[in-house]
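Quick one: structure for this chain?
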Amino acid sequence: MQSPKKPFKLDNAVIAAIIVAVATILAAVIGGLFLIHSGPSSNTNTTITPTATVSTSPTSTPVPTATSSTPKPLYQANWSQGIDGWIGNSQWSISSDGMLVSNGNEQDNDFIVSPYKPTTADYAVEAQIQFVGAAPPSTTLLFGIFVRSGSNGDVVGYDGYIYGNFAKIRRAADPHTVILQQTPYSLETSWHTYRVEAKNSTITFFIDNKQMLQVVDTAYTLPGLVGLFDNNSQINVRSFTVLPL
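Got it. Here's what it folds into:
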């Protein structure tokens, strides 16, 4: 008669090994699930730090303010309230809009003297003059600026002037003037700026900033007087300025 089989019984060491193996497997599975859950999401917002940009627009350059090259006047006529100290004969008057006007009718003393007396012989006289027409019945037209003059304007000094269709510089030596230089000039009725410069022994005549004539002469070296003259011409004068040189 066969003896009964003994029940199967695991050794304690085997049981322990199985438990360790199962625990290891479970730990691996749990760790994998954690990594999958905590991995990067496609919805994660990414913060981008902006980099500094360099402007390519040009740097603005300060625009220099305009400065005038014209020096401060030594004298500037103001006829808005009348003759303003000028001395001349009856052919000279002041218009209602403050201009000095000559009718050109006087034949003998056609000068008008400025109240300003230069203290140096080097200066420029500038006047804006409009020739209006001839003073009937004469057709000999003459008007201009005098510098370094005597009290009567035509005794000593220099004249820069228009004579008919010529621009001229003359040395005043009453009763005989001396023409030092001349050039053709087309006289018409527009406004023009006439300028006479006296510097050392050089006399220069400009019309509208263009040099017309220049002479060297040593006859008159004192400051003298300054002013205007007109013979047989109707003229308007809207400015008269003395400037340093």
